[in-house]
Model the fold of this input.
Amino acid sequence: MSAEHSSRAAPANTPVLHPIKSSTDPWLAPAEALYQRTFDRRERRDSLGGQLSNPRHNLLVILWSGDFAGFMTVWRFDAFAFIEHLATHPTVRGSGIGGIVLATVVQKAPLTVLEAERAEDSPLAPRRLAWYQSCGFMINPQAYRQPAYGPGLPEVPLHFLSHPRALRTDEFGAVVQTLRREVYAVH
Done:
């Protein structure tokens, strides 16, 4: 069983990705709290567990030495994976955990995509973009707007990143259409 789908004991310095399959999973509460604190309302759903029944959606809690260290949400499609959210607990930021779990996801998909704030929109965005680039992600040049997460919420201009390469224009359009339809339910 891969680390992404196992909560078996791992070496103390190896993060484990524990899949959340039920709203009764005890790791959902700390993940939800971090989700609400970390992501601006425009960039998140009402609830982290709202997509648990969707077979394409994977809510993975990051455990390190048996303790909660963060979470990520990954959508799997035939041609690519989409990392919708990734957050590490403040106590483990800078430890390398984020890069390890990101590498776990990208090695399982021929193409991995994610969204990130533009450098001009947040004081932390340039550092975050540089980190994603150090993990092998490329910023695609096409303009991108994240669809609204709900009524009354705006679309959000973001960078669209991909790994291991930049997307061709036609590929970018196809990936974005899939996300609009499957992740954001925009038809």
